[in-house]
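Anyone? Bumping this.
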Amino acid sequence: MLGDGILKGLAETAKNFAGSFVSKERMTTVEYPEERLPLPEAARNFPFLVYDGNDWEKGLRCVACQICEKECPPKCIYIEKSKDKKPDYVGKPQIYPAKFDIDISVCMSCQICVEVCPFEAIKMNTEFELATDDRFGGLLLDRKQLALSNEYYHQIHPTEASEVDARLAEEKAKVEAKAKAVAEAAAAKAAAGAPAAPVAAKPAASVEAKPVPANKAAEVAKAPAMATAPAEPKPVPGTGTDGAAPITAEDKKNAETPAKTNEGEAKAQGEPKE
Amino acid sequence: MTERLDQIFVLLKHWLLGYLPESWQTPVGVIISVVCIIGLYPALFAITTVLERKGVGRIQNRLGPNRVGPYGILQPMADGIKSLTKEDIVPTSADAVVHFLAPIILVVTVFMGFAVLPMGRNMVLVDMDAGLLFYFAMGASTELSVFMAGWSSRNKYSLLGAMRAVAQMISYEVALLLSSVVIVMMTGSLSLVKIVEAQNHYSYGLPHWFIFTPWGFAGFIMYAIAGTAETNRSPFDLPEGESELVAGYHTEYSGFKFALFFLGEYVAMFSISGLGSTLFLGGWMAPFAALQFIPSWIWFFGKLFVSMAVFIWVRGTLPRLRQDQLMNFAWKFVLPMCLLNLFVAALWRFMGDGWLRWVVCSAILILAYVNIGREGMRRKNFGPRSYRYAE
């Protein structure tokens, strides 16, 4: 009969009207500035620089190798190397970026800088509220603005960050074991043959150099350990079901990368010395 | 006490007038009433806009405006300030005088309709003998302002919108009038006050509203359809169809002139709702004899708000009609039903009391509804469309 469709429609809208007051499923609105949905773990926006410990300047992982600068497709990264050196996470003296600028108005969020970085120093941030009234200065981030702590990294990408920490710890353990072996060998040699004076001097120097960075390294090692702890339970707070799928994808990718990263690292470690 | 509360506005006006010399009392009394009407309905309009936006939002599972003030109730203030401070643009090639006059004529004629509407017991500005006629005369002149707006803008969308508006309003004006004529036939008066009085008696505690008769019910349905079309409300909002005509006849209006069109549209809705409740829903009468202690004006404005809620509900439900559907519906369904309703009303009048007239009148109307609905509204297959020039 004419008009029953209209009545059906009216019933449907009335159901919607009443339902929107009681059912959370119907009202899907998230009132953004006050409420916000947790970002999925795979969310990414613009890169930032990771630092360990509390002092961003001292703990910056970046060694100014400039691989990211060279790889960046839109060329939005600008790096100036420092003249002096500071110890990195394993205690090896490395140069650091005296200047590290990213122009986020140019950046296209491709994450290539993150993929090529051998030092796990640059990662993708999830911060998206970057509006500014100065479109030149306001969007050109210097290294102070870019430096964010490892804890923050754990907050935004828990799975990825724990993997990175594990890899760095492994790396450090390997270096330490090697140094120890070298030292032991040297000590054994020194004990065995006293006349080999010039040979003994060299290991002695390396042994002498060791203790200071070892302290530092312990400190650095503590920070990741501390940061890893809250990320241990699998259902990460702040990441709903949305995060689940991206995490697995990330896992797979990370499973592939270590070999590559190690290669890159070997290459890169040679590079700054040139 | 109940009596006092019921007449509070009338008493207040008389108390104020008591301070004036006798010769001044009549004109000042009229001015007071007019100012009240002109102040009241825009205020209701402001409340309705925010209620509508929130209601339609809820229908679509949104929140609606909730930023200005608590729960967004100050939204109309923000809108008003915005439209007042916006630049008033008149297109270079527009007819400036007509362009300026159109919104004013709309608002004036729309407000004129309230002159004869009884908003409570003894609360009517002019108790005119030909009140209904006056109301429809004023209602019909809104078409003039709509066409003035569309024509003077010198914009093809405006003109198209105005053409549509005039075609639609004239078509539905017929139905609107014919559906109200049954009331005049039964009460024998064009005065809206007398029409309300004719419904003002109860049996078994239930009112004798005209909607509770077969012809009254059919008339009310037709009136509601025609009234919706007359005020250019969804689903009959073709004249201002945002998606195809930008905004129809008020495309070229900005700032406060646009706000006036908006105001005129809503006040016309109030006025049509008010007339509808006066004609069919007993005006300011209580729906039950037991509720008569509540002041009459509360009932009138309550009915007004209920019909506004229905307007909003319908707007949130139905999609816009096509122009040919609109015209088909007006001339092939609403008009025949209205004409038949005249006959049924006459039959009712001359069949005398008894249950037989209920059966006969209802049967005629239902049969006609089903048949006209089936035959007249059937989708006709005209075969594949052929294009003579565009191929």
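Late reply, but here is one note on the structure posted above: The mean pLDDT of chain B is 86.
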